[in-house]
Amino acid sequence: MLRRRTFRIAVLGAAGVALAGGVTAFASAAPAHQTPAGPKPTVVLANGAWSDAAGWQGVINRLQRDGYPVVAPPTGLRGVTADSSYLAAYLKTIQGPVVLVGQSYGGMVITNAATGNTNVKALVYISAFAPDKDESVQDLTKKFPGSQISNDPNAQIPTALTPVPFPKADGTTGIDLYAKADQYRNLFFSNRVSAKTAAELAATQSPAAPEALGEASGDPAWKTIQSWYLVSKDDHVIPPATERFMANRAHAHTVEADTPHAAQVTNPGTVANLIKKAAESVH
Q: What is the pTM (predicted TM-score) of this model?
């Protein structure tokens, strides 16, 4: 889920480094392939909630440096159907093979957007939801204990979120959900960025509609497209046990790292290297 502008933060552990020190191969490793001759696949990045595409900046810099074309269209955060339909339409404008990457709620989006698109050759989940049909963000967050997004499992809206009503064009009232500023640093970064950086990001966050959390997913693309998964062992939003469950179910090439939920911000090198592993498998 996180993002924004240029992040001048001290990265713990293996930030900016290949998947080494502190990163453990968890499932079957991706087969070793030479990157095929010719153009490299396009990497498409989908951000999660309470963030935007700018959170991928450190990852984008590393991928572009290695010659990968990269795009990061914004996730609308309006609901699974709306967001995945937008991304599916965007993907149709890209020629050639695609490696599709989602972080957090972005995993819900790529799981649906890639279905039926033969150009998408690999899915990469970064601390992300990888739902099966009819599962929602709320379902998966509660599947195993450990999420700190709510201290009341029966609450209709997670207690770390603040609902903000607004008038819609049709005369009805909509709701936007914002993450509470005093919980932002712990939830998304496990306190691995400065309080100043976290406060700045909290102030400029993109809210999510309730439909993003409660809407059920459709037929999952990971059943027909090979996938990779980064399990963040210090994730305070999605329980690591849930991440392992989803990765195993998808038969994903999986690594575990000592990263927080927003690993793309704090550990862009770790994230970029996993994406490159997936890209190297594309023929």
A: 0.86
Residue type, 94: I
Say if residues 256 and 263 touch (Cβ distance below 8 Å).
Answer: no
Phi then psi for 239, rounded to 5 degrees?
-55, 135
Q: What is the pLDDT of residue 37?
A: 55
- Do residues 209 and 194 make contact, with C-beta atoms less than 8 angstroms apart? no
Residue 173's φ and ψ, nearest 5 degrees, are: -105, 125
With b for 16 or more beta-carbon neighbours within 10 A and e for fewer, the 197-216 pattern comes to: bbeebbeebbbbbbbbbebb
Give pLDDT < 70 ranges for the chain: 1-38, 283
Residues facing 103 on adjacent strands: 126
Owner of token pair 């990061």: 72
7 phi-psi bin (left φ>0, alpha ψ -120 to 50, beta other): beta
Helix, strand, coil share (%) of the chain residues, nearest 5: 35, 15, 50
Q: pLDDT value at position 24? A: 41
Question: Is the CB of residue 237 less than 8 Å from the CB of residue 148?
Answer: yes
Q: Could you tell me the domains of the chain?
A: 23-142+152-280 (3.40.50.1820)
Other C-beta atoms closer than 10 Å to the C-beta of 276 total: 21
pLDDT of res. 38: 67
Contact status, residue 199 vs residue 191, Cβ threshold 8 Å = no
C-alpha distances out from residue 169 to 8, 17, 177, Å: 40, 48, 19
Structure tokens at 28: 């079957």
